[in-house]
Amino acid sequence: MINPNYYCVIMAGGIGARFWPMSNSTTPKQFLDILGEGRTLIQKTFDRFTRVCPKENIYVVTSKNYRDITKAQLPDLADEQIILEPYRRNTAPCIAYANHKIKTKNPNATVVVAPSDHVILKEDVFIDVIEKGMASVSENDWLLTIGIRPSFPNTGYGYIQYDEDRVYAQNNSIYAVKTFTEKPELEMAKSFVESGEFLWNAGIFMWSLPTIQDAYMQHIPEVEMLFQQGDGLYNTPEETEFVDKIYQVCKNISVDYAVMEKAQNVKVYAAEFGWSDLGTWGSLYELRKKDDNRNVITGNHVKTYDTNKCIINVPKNKVVVVQGLEDYIVVENNDVLLICPKSEEQQIRQFVTDVQVDFGNKYV
Amino acid sequence: MINPNYYCVIMAGGIGARFWPMSNSTTPKQFLDILGEGRTLIQKTFDRFTRVCPKENIYVVTSKNYRDITKAQLPDLADEQIILEPYRRNTAPCIAYANHKIKTKNPNATVVVAPSDHVILKEDVFIDVIEKGMASVSENDWLLTIGIRPSFPNTGYGYIQYDEDRVYAQNNSIYAVKTFTEKPELEMAKSFVESGEFLWNAGIFMWSLPTIQDAYMQHIPEVEMLFQQGDGLYNTPEETEFVDKIYQVCKNISVDYAVMEKAQNVKVYAAEFGWSDLGTWGSLYELRKKDDNRNVITGNHVKTYDTNKCIINVPKNKVVVVQGLEDYIVVENNDVLLICPKSEEQQIRQFVTDVQVDFGNKYV
User: Fold this and answer.
1) B177 forms bridges with which residues in the sheet?
2) Backbone dihedral region for residue B189 (phi beyond 0: left; psi -120 to 50: alpha; all else: beta)
3) Is the pLDDT of residue A325 over 80?
4) For chain B, does the N or the C end have fewer beta carbons within 10 angstroms?
5) Which residues of chain A make contact with B318, given a CB cutoff of 8 A?
């Protein structure tokens, strides 16, 4: 039974430079079928949340540039379910905007906020976690985040230290939070994982609308008050002009930093549902099925010789012959080719910048 | 002063799989500007011979498939100067056909026969060699071939052993020939080079028409007689039908094997004019100008990082980012991409075969 009080906000404003040139500013990662399953990441995200929320209660927040691709990929969304940000201002303003839009529909909504471009392999477990989490935040004034049990000392994630002794009586996976730590150094990440007290911050949040709006008013009132000025304008013809105006002066800040790391009523739901933020080619490589030479190949006309542990991602009809590469990324999209060792993938952001400077915006 | 008795036959039937995918069966190597000079190899070859022969005495022998590209690249050629072979039968039939065509124009012609796809860096020296060679074969019934002083033990070339004691009085670069050796093993190639008695066979021949036709009649009469049956038909509307018929039954054999290795009147002109048969990516790499990282790059939008001694050849506007490759070939053409260590380039023929089998003729 789907609860008509449940709402979902899918954050889809990312520009995804790390998977360049497969992703680019025209088609960021969330709009790609990066796993080769026939549905893009945002479509998969939408599909998942239709199991928890009424379709008409699912909102996508994205940039104006991605309005058309969002409508094309999610034709079930009404125009008013696509919230368009005029500028990129990180997650705190994005969530504030969505909160005020939802408030016009249902001031007592229970809301789940999630990224559009993550992978969840165990969907049934995920749905169960979301349902239990939504039930808990509809009864408690909690800011609930999902923490993933870490499998290795990833230095690209935020970590949440939870308090084993302060566990919620009705759900023994929900804990009080001790600390948040942004991307730690490797040594610290190792000690986090070994301690057993830390979880990866998956960036998936649940709360009731009054609870999150109270938290905003307490911890980031300048942003909350900006959006409050628009109450009465949301879902009217004046909304766009108003939002354009306030975004120009709105702080650029993450909800983690602005609210979660400061609030006292933050809880974490410790879970494991085959989650990945798909932040790197390496993480995609780990998730994908390998061939006999442990290559992950996308493309129908690829031949490899003496080539192992590579990720090769090329257009369907492109003929590609690769001889003698190990542990490389070979990607072509949109008349751009990248060849790079997997171990050097953190340099891709630099390549994107260099290509933009040297050859212009059309390639990035 | 250009001698009106001088004729040139440019052999342009090669299909050039070794530079795949830059060359392919639609556009073999001779039709490519492989050195990036603004003229294709066959155009450069034609240009060179216009310094020795009247333009109207220059013939190109090629396959029917390459008639249009030949006319497009060499607009100065009249139709009858483009000799079209219906099937590929190696160099001996090709030369026999050209001989009989030329005989209709000038039975006492002096002829130089040369491949269309070699590189000659010192053109003035080359012209001097050709002029002196042509003069010598118009006065002597010699089959004269050009031998290049070897700079290293290349196992991909044929070698000619010359007789230092039997040198032509008027030109101390022309010697009697002792032996021909097809592509030797490395140890043998080393001893050839060390001995100082061996030259690379450049596949460039000079002779008078009566001398080469006598040699054909003596050493490969079955081929010569086939073509003799057509005397009276060459340069008439019946020529094509006749040639189609005889090529079906004609032997497939090289002029080296059929004639040069057997005849007693073979001489070699020992020369050095910056010659390369451009038989491999490696040989192209050696010839081309290197950048600061010793890369040879063709393409206007290529960026390399930690990449050395590579040959990168991609379409002008393709954006290519290469990180962490050393001694590789990266080539894209016609929607085909090849990545291969230079040391493995002898495998390219196999790749071409595999791609043809798996994906069809359109890519090879």
Assistant:
1) B162
2) alpha
3) yes
4) N
5) 335-337
